Structure prediction request, 461 residues.
Amino acid sequence: MPAGEALIAALDAVAREATLFAALWFVVGGIDDLLVDLIYVARRVRGRCEMLPALDRPVPAGRIAIFVPAWDESAVIGRMLRAALARFEHPDYRIYVGTYPNDPATIDAVAEVALEDARVRLVIGPRPGGTTKADCLNTLWRALLRDEAAEGFTASAVALHDAEDVVHPLELRVYAHGLIEHAAVQLPVLPLAHPHSRFFAGHYLDEFAESHGRSLVVRQAVGAGLPFAGVGCAIRRDVLGRLAAMRNGAPFDAASLTEDYELGLAIAAMGAPARLVRVTEAPGGPLIAIRAYFPSTIDAAVKQKARWMIGIALAGWDRTGWGGLLQVGDNWMRMRDRRATLEIPVLALAYLSILFWGLSLGAHLLAGTRLPAQSPLMQTVLWTNLALLLWRLAVRAAFVGRAYGWREALWSVPRVLSSNAVALLAARRALFDYVGMLGGAAPRWDKTAHQFPDLAKEPGG
Prediction:
């Protein structure tokens, strides 16, 4: 065989095998997602997707402590705190803000608000920042214990927020009612649409609309532990105290990069699982949800997604392991959490297969020959992939449309490309960082810069 023909044959073989391998795994992942869709539809048909606490009842007594870790957040923390103080509709709460001794700008911003309103408590940690968010949360926990001992009260719950969050006026009321029957409560998180980042900030809209509208609902339905989103969640004080007693007085694991994810699984393992609460302000009204700007540049999005991948799919796998042998639903959901370890290489191979097919087509055009016909197996797998892809895009668009309207639903289709780009780059960064951790590098709070919106321009602001 001449060298040119041999090269063309090799290109054809590489393109064919790479495509088949990637396509087969896409079918497996597509069927996995389809099963989640079917369970969700079954729950919707039965009308069992949402828990709707009666918010018109009197608010249960008890102080809610709100923990806000803040490392290098001077640009947003003051506005966030003032907005929260103006918005919260609850008679008894205190906001604990955790800062670092080497971050004077954030300390000054928090102190200014604390002097104006005694419901804000400035807490300066003993170690320079940034450590991990969990370490900062433990500092806030110890501050709460000191206040309880000094003032003779016991908080009813601890809620978690980030320094860039736009809180909902009714969220503390939802926590107070929801925690009567449940050990912990998670509200939906809906990222704000960034005016200057349709694709990189926008892809978070798609992911959270589907995750908090569908995936977490199904997670509850199959009896799996519900991981927290890190914001918009509240845990009963006694439950957090029990967890602290099991962890030498520190309820949050300071060695974790995704303490929110692990915290939800930890309290579920204690027999006190969290509950997702999707409730509207009024019948047919807006959803009670936490909103915030998410990273608007590809670099910032990659940094954040890499931390999530390490904490959930890599180091998190080592740390949290699997559920019990008979906990089929929980193990299935943990497997889905860790799919990135396989999905990202397969996705990269799929894009490489497109490159190889392009090279193959060019070589055949130069040689005056035709591309080889695809086998029946390849055709079946590719058509199945197309059907699953169209279904996946339609499902995502439906959830995005429910949360943000039809325009964002349409944008969710091309945003799949930006989502894939961020995932591929984040996987590369996560792998190198994880190898460093295996070599003994200490986990650090690799945070991104935050923005706080002009609430007068936001819907409902």
Notes: The CA atoms of residues 161 and 231 lie 4 Å apart. The radius of gyration is 24 Å. The chain has a mean pLDDT of 88.
